[in-house]
């Protein structure tokens, strides 16, 4: 990863106007932009994002990596077994962190998501420390598709709104 490319992406992100309404994310249009003081943490954090998605207690783990070069996304079940489908991005080879760290992250995500019928909880792992990112109620503005499409149907049918 080239640090100058990362810095340029941050500069651009801080100066761009957010076009959430054009992407169907009107609920996130008003927010204040900021950067963490320790850029090194940011650079490490963007390498791996672990997200737990809750669909009425049916959950799966999503790991995004190589986001700024050749974005890949792997999906796992709750026992950390790789699932045989993709969500928007093709998966790749990835060495999971220790089972203990994954279990801790899973427990945090479960607690945060328990009051919602659908939410994505983003947690970051940096130097074996867990950081909270955000809770997303409209990931990908609802446009990201599973491949094969039968997985799209499977998860869509699980959502029982409260």
From TrEMBL:
Pfam families: ATPgrasp_TupA. This is Uncharacterized protein. The chain crosses the membrane at residues 34-55. InterPro entries: ATPgrasp_TupA. Keywords: Membrane, Transmembrane, Transmembrane helix. It comes from Providencia rettgeri.
